[in-house]
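User: tokens in, sequence out, please.
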């Protein structure tokens, strides 16, 4: 993968990793409890709906189809959220070059697997029917016009995501945060097995020892005494660490 491809992958990961809500489960292959635990809505694509139980630990994957033309660069985001748990045997069979030939995309990026760390999510999906990539069923989560600045993203650099969502971390849940020197606080919304395929939730409490944090930044794990809600009706501010774990801003700096 070229340097440009790596930069684009990171920038797109900031936009889409754990950022898109998903619609009602439509797969008989997924276990019944997984169908509820995935970030599902009661009416597919019909608007907001609260989840009945935690989505924490639910696995999902995304495919980014990048199309470059005279009018600019667009990215289609497809994901397994709410449809299935991205079975490893189906995910590992996917090949970016094969998908690029099949879809006519300029570039195809495989973004996953990822695992939710939130307890509930609400949001809204665009309408559309699921499709299969290989044997893996996905639905389209978004189409985004990319700007040139997205090619230059770096770890711990903020990005604004045009999404309307509400992430809930329940009282008693352990959360993982980044604290910036100006007081800004970011909570991890998902961890990734992209850079480190063996990363597990059990390692997250001490992950700070592995991270190359910017000067003055702190990583911490803590158990919530009260519910934490990250409500972003008009867009979200997100960043990633060097392992491509994704965080949402919820405490403003000063």
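Assistant: Sequence out:
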């Amino acid at each position: 993968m070229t340097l440009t491809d790596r930069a684009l992958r990171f920038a797109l990961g900031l936009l889409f990793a754990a950022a898109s809500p998903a619609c009602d489960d439509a797969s008989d292959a997924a276990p019944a409890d997984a169908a509820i635990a995935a970030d599902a809505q009661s009416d597919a694509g019909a608007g907001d709906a609260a989840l009945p139980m935690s989505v924490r630990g639910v696995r999902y994957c995304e495919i980014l189809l990048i199309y470059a033309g005279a009018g600019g660069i667009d990215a289609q985001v497809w994901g397994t959220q709410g449809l299935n748990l991205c079975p490893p045997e189906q995910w590992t069979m996917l090949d970016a070059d094969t998908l690029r030939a099949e879809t006519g995309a300029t570039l195809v990026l495989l973004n996953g697997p990822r695992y939710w760390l939130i307890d509930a999510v609400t949001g809204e999906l665009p309408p559309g029917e699921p499709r299969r990539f290989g044997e893996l069923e996905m639905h389209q989560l978004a189409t985004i016009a990319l700007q040139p600045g997205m090619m230059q993203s770096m770890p711990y650099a903020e990005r604004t995501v045009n999404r309307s969502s509400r992430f809930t971390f329940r009282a008693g849940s352990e959360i993982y945060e980044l604290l910036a020197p100006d007081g800004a606080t970011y909570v991890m919304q998902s961890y990734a097995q992209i850079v480190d395929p063996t990363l597990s939730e059990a390692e997250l409490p001490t992950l700070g020892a592995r991270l190359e944090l910017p000067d003055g930044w702190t990583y911490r794990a803590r158990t919530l005494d009260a519910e934490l809600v990250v409500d972003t009706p008009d867009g979200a501010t997100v960043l990633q660490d060097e392992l491509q774990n994704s965080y949402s801003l919820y405490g403003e700096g000063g």
